[in-house]
Amino acid sequence: MFFRMIFGTLIRQWKKMLMIAFTIALGASLATAMLSVMLDVGDKVNQELKTYGANITVVPKENSVLNSLYEVEDGGSTGAYLREDELGKIKTIFWAFNIVDYAPFVNTKAKLDDGTEITAVGTWFNHHMELPTGEQLDAGITSLRSWWEVTDGKWIDEQSIENRNVAMVGSALAEKLGVRMCDEIHLTGSVSDLTVKVAGIIDAGGDEDNKIFMPLDTAQTLSGLDGKVDSVEVSALTTPDNELAVKAAKDPKSLTIAQYELWYCTAYASSICYQIQEVMTDAVASPVRQVADSEGAILEKTQLLMVLITILSLIGAALGICNLVTASVMERSAEMGLMKAIGAQNSSVSGLVLTEIIITAVFGGIAGFFAGYGFAQIIGHTVFGSAINMRPAVIPIVAVLVLIVTLAGCIPAIRMLLRLSPCEVLHGK
Amino acid sequence: MSLLELKNIYKIYGDLHALDDVNLKVEKGEWLSIMGPSGSGKSTMMNIIGCMDKPSKGEVLLDGVDIAKESAKNLTMIRRDKIGLIFQQFHLVSYLTAIENVMLAQYYHSVPDEKEALEALDRVGLADRAKHLPSQLSGGEQQRVCVARALINYPEIILADEPTGNLDDANEKIVVDLFHKLHNEGTTLIVVTHDPEVAEVAQRTVYLRNGRLHKETINQHFTGEIKFDNEVSV
Asked: What is the pTM of this model?
């Protein structure tokens, strides 16, 4: 009898119920889209921000102590180096898939023929690696410093060059020396000298414009630092720091076992740094605060915006439901009054109306969920250029939100039902 | 003890006394008509007797229980268990069939029983129309479904508000005959009407005017059968 009455109403008032379902679908679709994007936006925004450079630097422990002691970024060499043969291990840590790019650097002083001393930097441009995991990776500054502009020539392609004595010259230095692409520069390092051919001129917009960049092994030959690197810059997808991450960054040993596991298994910059330190001998990895903080701030603001849009859309849906359900109950006041007159308690009549609306909400919510999934993909492709991964958590969250919004929207109608006097509606008083 | 007793009942809306010191007793198995012009307080009295409203003052004793002091929830239960309501406008649920409308009263009372509902429809001569929607029934048939619905839970009182107000003579006779049949079976009937022909077939008629009991007549020649040539003598 109960369901006969419900289906009777759903069929008889199908237009109104369709409007209610549509309103719920609208709210659910926006909530689904926003939640999907919000939960996935961390990775997306991080991915976007990774194009603006590394967010973790790795230096030898001794250099790090010196830098910390004198609060300088470049404390100079103490004679301590990182091992080049350990660089591949960075892609074997727990959060290996979050390491999107990295490049080692070796800095050395070299003299030009006229006696001028310049800084030569050895690095990877697009170094190809075959990792122990079987994964292949092309890493280096070509992608890590993608905003550098090559004003003359082109990036060095390490995988195709036969002569490794090539270099990219900073624009300021190139202007000072009057060199262009294909010119040759003779450099005298601390242990050997060599002539490099200019592959391109780079405009980095910073100190790098006064340096000369060459393949890592070329700079190592020049300086006699075979198998050694000064530092490594790593670009990693990270989760914004929270209280736990801050505490762990100060001293991981201060964490309880449960906290440690949570921290270790979350892609905080500090936990990735910790894991890098685990695989590299005498290395100190630290987040580049400015970048990490910016990522966190942008992410938080983006997510806040999405939460606000979700809340507003749900409030809108609740108001729409409120109007429609109230209108529906008013239209059926004689029927509701009759039910009360023949013995229905307030709870029975309210339960009937709520069940009708919740059944409608289920259909509206399912339709809204799939529409929202579609909206999320449109947002993903339009804003981030890739699909949004639907997190399973979105389904129960949207279900609970739809239920809350539906029930909230029904409150005025239910209040009206509770106040409905059978004698008033049945006698038209 | 009377089945129903109204003691010094008042219903006051601001300055208006819809009911003004009304006293009335209804015995078990009695057929009572309440008559009066529009605004005399008939519907107010029916709402109070039907547990759909409470008096401003006074006692309403139903089976010895003062229903004027009961909570809204208890009034609903009393109405469900003891009173069968019949309305002028029928008030059938439009999307339920005749039998489902009868079962609706069972549903809110106890458990729907299709066989019993069909028997109730049979009592009012509508067993063959059980699967019809209200829109497929005539006015008289709709009112008989309403009677079946009122009967289904074996109430102590059948309370009818202008039961023939929307019916033609033929259907009016059918409904009144039905009341006669119910009365013979021992059902207590209270019929609110302004139709003298319907009122005068009852055992007793009380007349309301300006919220007060104005007059009371006993039908000395009670037969319970309606006659349209005004042959009923009071």
From this structure: 0.62
B104 vs A11: CB contact, 8 Å cut-off?
A: no
Supply the DSSP symbol for A382: I
Beta bridge partner(s), residue A193? A188
Contacts of B147 in chain A (CB under 8 A): none
With CB atoms and an 8 Å threshold, state whether A429 touches B50: no
| Alpha carbons A337 and B76: distance in angstroms, whole number | 12
**Dist CA A160 CA A310 (whole Å):** 51
Residues A348, A354, A359, A360, CA torsion sign = positive
- Is the Cβ–Cβ distance between B145 and B102 less than 8 Å? yes
pLDDT in tens, chain A (429 residues): 777 777 777 777 788 888 889 999 988 998 898 888 888 776 666 655 655 556 888 999 877 665 655 555 444 456 788 998 888 888 888 888 888 889 999 999 999 888 889 999 999 998 888 877 777 888 898 888 888 888 888 898 888 877 788 999 999 999 988 888 888 999 988 888 889 999 999 988 778 899 999 999 999 988 888 889 999 999 888 877 778 888 887 788 888 888 888 888 888 888 888 899 989 888 998 887 666 566 667 777 877 888 888 888 889 889 998 998 898 888 888 888 888 888 888 888 899 889 988 998 999 999 999 999 999 889 888 877 778 888 888 899 989 999 999 999 899 999 988 888 888 777 654
CA distance B75 to A423: 13
Of A294, A285, A221, the residue nearest A249 (C-alpha): A285
Q: In this complex, do A1 and B100 lie within 8 Å of one another by their Cβ atoms? A: yes
Alpha-carbon distance A80 to A82, whole Å? Answer: 7
Instruction: Report the residue from B91, B96, B153 with minimal CB separation from A334.
Output: B91
Sign of CA dihedral A197, A203, A209, A213: negative
CB–CB contact A343 B76 (8 Å): yes
Show the domains of chain B with their CATH numbers. Answer: 4-89+139-148+156-218 (3.40.50.300)
Nearest alpha-carbon partner for B78 in B65, B59, B92, B91: B65
Check CB contact under 8 Å for A426 and B76. no
CA–CA separation, A128 and B157 (whole Å): 95
Tokens matching residue A278: 């685990």
Q: Pick the residue of A339, A342, A356, A419 with the most B CBs within 10 A to test the interface with B by mutation.
A: A342
Q: What CA–CA distances, in Å, run from B82 to A426, B50, B118, B153?
A: 19, 9, 21, 8
Q: How far is B47 from chain A (nearest CA, A)?
A: 6
Q: What is the ipTM of this complex?
A: 0.84
What are the angstrom distances between the C-alpha of A147 and each of A144, A179, A203, A206, A214? 9, 22, 9, 12, 18
- Residue numbers in A near B161 (CB within 8 A): 427
